[in-house]
Design goal:
The chain has no helices and 7 strands. By secondary structure, it is an all-beta fold.
Amino acid sequence: LVNDRETLTFRLQDGEFDDATEASFDFADLRGDAQVRVIFFEDGGRIGAESYDASAGAITADLDGASFDTVKIRALGDTAFSLDGFAFERLMADEFLFA
């Protein structure tokens, strides 16, 4: 189980367009307060972080449409978890508007 001493990191570097706008996590085993923190990065810089209540067994994390290429998730307080699945809403080439 992942607890407050560990962080899972997902780097979305697959092909030409490696950004996403949402990260979804399904929890297999969730213990304690069920509080997790998701931290977003773009090109190596931190662009935001949000805390979520995962007691429903799943969360969808985003930064109001901002894109990211790396996301980290960690447990807060006495929470411990394992993941059953995860998915990312990836940007596609035709979603970019070039001036």
